[in-house]
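Supplementary notes (optional reading)

For those who missed the lab, this is the record we used. Protein: YeeE/YedE thiosulfate transporter family protein. Length: 196 residues.
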Amino acid sequence: MSSILLAIVLGLAFGAALDRVGASNPTLIGKMLNLTNLNLAKSILLAIGTGSVLMFGGQMLGLVDVGHMSVKTAYVGVFLGGLMLGAGWAVSGFCPGTGVVAAASGRKDALFFIAGGLLGAAAYMVTYPSWKASGLLDKIWGGKVTLGTVPGSKFDGVTALPGDVLGLVLGLGFVALAFALPERLTGQKAGAQPAE
């Protein structure tokens, strides 16, 4: 029961953080994707990088049990699904998590997004045998693998590089990129007026 309560508390805190940085605002998502406001992208990079540093650094120091590491199976359908998710995110301004946060904060358009997602999931369930038969769900690279080999984990590495060091370096790279990115790559500064 305590793990369920902890999950609820962490979920509420994560949702509040997503709403605070603007991840539940389709306008800010659009500005991020057209490179006119990268503050949200910087927040995402910082969160991923910090999480990676804490997880892999904690594993290296023995503070985090490597047995808790979870890896999803690699198959072609995951990559196609990722492309579809990205396209849906660009069109709607929501991803599954931010759609729920937006609905919780009162956005009615997010309710339609959630309904569409549930309808899509139901359509996938009904057509699952066809997807399975197509070969798109066949494992590639051995299925559950990591980029490097993580000591003590049950997952194979695609390379012989030490996975915990690789995860730490990638995490630090994401943090550095979050600080190095400018506020925008295209467009004018917010509130700036063109010269006459």
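If you only remember one thing from this example: The chain has one domain: 2-180.
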